[in-house]
């Protein structure tokens, strides 16, 4: 994901199921990716939307993948691929904290 803030790159865990398809007038895209388009947006100084789940840890995601696989919402081979790939990176909690704090203080 690419941001228009000073921090150029944030990693976050997300899914293709929910996406922002269209923003309301005057909303501003503050981060984007080729995968989903709008990754983050703000509407004035009061609303910020984030695609994905920066709060998820690897343990939470592994549990979610297992549940989806056990209920046959995803095939086992896809679940295995997801688990193998999630070990490569972890969201930078300090960067997310700084970003959200900056937004709340009106500095974003």
UniProtKB/TrEMBL annotation:
InterPro entries registered for this protein in UniProt: ChyE-like (IPR044992), Class_I_gatase-like (IPR029062)
Gene3D superfamilies xref list: 3.40.50.880
Gene Ontology CC, one term: cytosol
Entry coiled-coil feature ranges: none
Protein name: Glutamine amidotransferase domain-containing protein
Species lineage: Eukaryota, Viridiplantae, Streptophyta, Embryophyta, Tracheophyta
């Amino acid at each position: 994901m690419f941001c228009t803030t000073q921090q150029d790159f944030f990693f976050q865990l997300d899914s293709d199921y929910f996406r922002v398809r269209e923003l309301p007038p005057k909303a501003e895209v503050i981060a984007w990716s080729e995968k989903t388009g709008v990754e983050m947006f703000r509407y004035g100084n009061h609303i910020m939307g984030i695609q994905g789940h920066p709060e998820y840890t690897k343990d939470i995601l592994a549990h979610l993948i297992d549940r989806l696989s056990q209920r046959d919402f995803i095939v086992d081979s896809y679940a295995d691929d997801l688990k193998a790939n999630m070990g490569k990176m972890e969201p930078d909690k300090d960067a997310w904290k700084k970003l959200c704090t900056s937004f709340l203080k009106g500095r974003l």
